[in-house]
Amino acid sequence: MEIGFLFVVGILALIAIWVIFYFVPVGLWFTALISGAHISLLQMILMRWRKIPVSSIVSSMIEGTKAGLKLNPNSLEAHYLAGGNFRNVVHALVSAQKAGINLNFEEATAIDLAGRDVFEAVQMSVNPKVINTPPVTAVAKDGIQLIAKARVTVRANIRQLVGGAGEETVLARVGEGIVSSIGSSVSHKSVLENPDFISRVVLEKGLDAGTAFEILSIDIADIDVGKNIGAQLQMDQAEADKNIAQAKAEERRAMAVALEQEMKAKAQEARAKVILAEAEVPLAMAEAFRNGNLGIMDYYRMKNMIADTQMRESISAPKTDSSKK
Known about the structure:
By secondary structure, this protein is of the alpha+beta class. Helices cover 66% and strands 11% of the residues. It has 14 helices and four strands. β2 and β3 form a beta hairpin. The chain is elongated. 21% of the residues are buried. The mean pLDDT is 80.
């Protein structure tokens, strides 16, 4: 029984020692002490209770102290609790100091909390970044399409990182400048002969205003000749004019056909009236005979006149092929 009791006591003692050394990081405190980073043991214990990575805080404090920075562990802890990356901030401060860039802790944490990589921004301030634009299509005044690609060399503007526009805005403005410069050229040949004309025009526009970058240079990497947009537009216009003319001609033809049909209908109506009138002639003649207004000799003279008229019409009518035969 005594052996089992001692075993249990020993296990509990080991657990207690582990808990004590976990919440009382003596090793980290001693490491910080010999490195010149001033962090009290009580503060480390409280960091453990607040679930803050003490080892990362200590390593960042040591890094900053060795680089000559005066860091406050409370500030690092507050930045961590705010959701920031304090290790990245310390790296950026050390790099900025070595590069001679004026960057303090408050600015670095503000940039980090704004969602930008402050360490990458410092590196970009020292080593400018080259951004390749997508192919930009523009048309010169002579109607020839040009496809240009540019390389934009930018440097991070530390003061504009908070609230400044990003790479997408820079690329959009550069593309707009390329389209404007090519569109203002009289001929596409002049652009092909002097591609640096595009760079000068675009740089003069101050496209980096309000962005997180400073444009150092814009170099035209490639220019390709595309379609003859002017000729294509003229062909499309000619095709459209032809279709309009055909539509108008078809409209006129339809109106002529309708007018012809109307005239035929009127002619048929007139013939029907003539036939009706001719049908009334015998009736009128019979009535004249009964009333004594028409005699038999008058009737014969009328018949002779009709026969004479038909003979004259047959003589004056053109001969058909059957008559020739």
